[in-house]
Automatic annotation (TrEMBL):
It comes from the Eukaryota. InterPro entries: BPS1_pln (IPR004320). GO terms for biological process: root development; shoot system development. Keywords: Coiled coil. It holds the Pfam family BPS1. Residues 198-225 form a coiled coil. This is Uncharacterized protein.
Length: 251
């Protein structure tokens, strides 16, 4: 399992949000016109999503801290090998197994929801929220389970995905072990600790450095994607709140 897979998860989330935005435009029901039920549903959904995103950010922070500690251990290798070895064994990024959905793709997520089958545009939006939550909470839960900060998505029911237009969505399987980049750092750190007083120490230190750089780049990208989605949700929440304030002051 790779952190690259986690990055692709965020691509799925971005696709879902764009699909929802397209639906809002196509049925001509902007947020300024949303009724109380649609707004309330969005506030509930966005709050839970933001909470899960905060958990992902927290997990990333823990791994970044472990990475910094390993870089510190590398700085001790030459002048204090015993201290370096102690730090190598104590400070390693950890990451549990992740749920994998093979060839997961989302296409036309809300294309099956038509206004004629509902009573009003708000009902269309509420149905779309139900579909969006089923996928988004599922994906976020998969990410959290892979980053050792699993937090249940609450009312998520996997059966809800049956109504969605998914091109390929195979059975979720538990994959043992840490994610690829994390496992490679762990192995490189253990190898360096074993070779700390040998002539192979320098080469082992170079390998750990290389693995740490790969991990760092992956974590930076995931952190960027997490913050971007969080900011989008927060901006939409603020816009909805502003709409309600404006309506209350209308003559």
């Amino acid at each position: 399992m790779s952190l690259t897979w986690v990055q692709k998860c965020f691509e799925v989330l971005d696709m879902i949000n764009k699909d929802f935005t397209r639906l809002v435009v196509e049925i001509d029901y902007p947020m300024t016109a949303w009724g109380g039920a649609a707004a309330e549903e969005f506030f509930k959904y966005s709050l839970q999503s933001m909470d899960m995103l905060n958990s992902i950010t927290s997990s990333i922070s823990h791994m970044i801290q472990a990475k910094i500690s390993l870089f510190y251990a590398l700085s001790l290798v030459e002048n204090s090998p015993s201290s370096a070895k102690e730090n190598l064994l104590q400070n390693q990024p950890k990451c549990s197994s992740i749920k994998l959905v093979e060839d997961f793709k989302v296409e036309g997520l809300f294309s099956g929801i038509e206004e004629k089958s509902c009573f009003g545009k708000e009902s269309v939006i509420l149905q779309a929220f139900s579909a969006m939550k089923s996928i988004e909470f599922w994906v976020l839960d998969a990410i959290l389970s892979g980053m050792e900060t699993r937090k249940s998505a609450g009312n998520f029911n996997g059966s809800n995905t049956n109504c969605l237009n998914l091109r390929s969505c195979k059975e979720i399987n538990e994959k043992p072990g840490a994610m690829k980049e994390v496992k490679e750092v762990q192995d490189a750190a253990m190898h360096l600790a074993a070779e700390i007083s040998t002539e192979r120490c320098k080469e082992a230190a170079k390998e750990l450095t290389r693995r740490l750089v790969v991990l760092e780049n992956s974590l930076q990208e995931i952190e960027k994607q997490t913050q971007s989605l969080f900011s989008q949700l927060l901006a939409t929440r603020n816009q909805l709140l502003e709409n309600f304030r404006f309506k209350r002051h209308e003559p």
